[in-house]
C-alpha cells in the first residue's frame, strides 16, 4: 500500500479553518479508496509564530519540509505584519528552495456556480493558467537612486533564463499534449513594448513548440489576452505566462469563475525531487477569521490537485464530483456563495457526498 506524507501548514486566520476541512476530506477519501494511506505532520509556522519568534519558521524549517511528498498550506498573513514578511519569510523560500517553478491554477467554472460573465457555461470556462513561479519580473535586482533629488528614480530588473523559460514552456506543452482539449498553448507576451525579455520568451515559445508537433501555439499580448479572458474565454485551453503576467491573469481567472472562496492553486516541482505545495488563492481573510464562515471549497479543491499530482487520479476526481454535487444542490453553502452554512458544515457535507459516491 502506498503511503504519502503531508506537511500541514494551516497558517493564519481562515487558513486554519479551511485546512481542517481539507484534511477531513483527505482522510475520508483515503479511508474509502483503500489504496493509499496518508500521514501528516502539522507545523504552526505563521504570522502568529512570527510574533513570538521574530521569524515565520525555524531556521531548519526548509530542511524539515524537504522529505514530504506534499505541503498543504492554508494562508499566511495578519494585520500589522507586512506582506513582505510572510512572503519572504515563508512562501518564497519554499517555492524557490523546492524548485516549485510551476504555479498551476485551473480557471474552471464548476457546475452550480454562476460566472459573472453573462451566459458563460462550465463548457465555456475551462482552461488552465500556468504561471512561471520563480524568476521573471519578480526579481530582487534593482534599486533606488538619487532619492530626494529631482532625478529620484527606481529600477527593477527582470530575469529570464534559458533554463527557467524552457522548463515552464515544456510543462505547458506537455500538459496540453497530455490533457488539453484543444491541443493549443497560448503564451502571454508583451514583446511590442518590453523589448529584451519578451522577444526572448517568444523565441523560446517557437523553439519548444517544435518539440511538440501535435500541439499548436499562439503568442498573445497580455493586454489583449486579459480582454479575451472576458470576451471569449472559451477559445483558451492551456495558457502560459511569466511571473507577473501570470499573477495578473490568475486573479482575473479566479474572478470569472466565482471568486476567492473557490479558487485553488498548486506550486509544483514537476520532477518530484522536492515536495509540491498546494494552497488556496485566498489569504487569511482577517475580516471573517474566527467566525467559522470561510468557504473551504478552494482548500478542498487543492486536496484534489494534490492527489492528482501524487498519481491518485480516481480519488482526485471523486473529490471534484463531491464538490460539484454540493454546489449544484445549493443547500449547504457558506455566505460568500449565498448560503447560511458554516465552514465545518460544508466540509462535512462534502465528506458525506464522497462516502455516498465511493
Ligand atoms: P491576506 O493579507 O492574508 O492576503 P486579505 O485581507 O488579502 O488577507 P483575502 O483572504 O485575500 O484577504 O480575502 C479578500 C476578501 O475575500 C476578504 O473580504 C475575505 O473575506 C474574502 N474571502 C477570501 N477567502 C474567502 C473564503 N475562503 N471564504 C469566504 N470569503 C473569503
Ligand atoms: Mg491578500
Automatic annotation (TrEMBL):
EC class: oxidoreductase
Family matches, as Pfam families: Iso_dh
EC number: 1.1.1.83
InterPro entries the UniProt entry points to: ICDH/IPMDH (IPR050501), IsoCit/isopropylmalate_DH_CS (IPR019818), IsoPropMal-DH-like_dom (IPR024084), TTC_DH (IPR011829)
GO molecular function: tartrate dehydrogenase activity
Membrane-spanning parts: none
Keywords: Manganese, Metal-binding, NAD, Oxidoreductase
Reaction catalysed by this enzyme: (R)-malate + NAD(+) = pyruvate + CO2 + NADH
Highest taxon of the lineage: Bacteria
Keyword NAD recorded: yes
Necessary cofactors: Mg(2+); Mn(2+)
Entry annotated with the keyword Cell membrane: no
Chain ranges of the Isopropylmalate dehydrogenase-like domain: 5-350
Family to which the UniProt record says this protein belongs: Belongs to the isocitrate and isopropylmalate dehydrogenases family.
NCBIfam families: PRK03437.1, PRK08194.1, TTC
Name of the protein in its database record: D-malate dehydrogenase (decarboxylating)
